[in-house]
From TrEMBL:
Keywords: Membrane, Transmembrane, Transmembrane helix. This is DUF4220 domain-containing protein. The chain crosses the membrane at residues 6-23, 49-66. The keyword Transmembrane applies.
Amino acid sequence: MEMAAVAAAVGVLLPFPFYWALWNHPQRWVDLCGRGADPCRRMAQVSHVLKYVLLWCLGYVFMMWVENKEDPATRAKLIT
């Protein structure tokens, strides 16, 4: 179950360094985006990716929790 805890921690903690850097060094973000790119739009795209990672991690933890409670005797058997 410790792998599930690590996955959940990664998903939950990943956005904090990104938003901290944006808040404390906004000009670096603008420079990183480059000329012609809208920094707000890039920030929204990165935020969507971070939300996807969070959703994936939470789904992984949920599946580990469900599989932990399953009875192996009631699982589907391979057709031979």
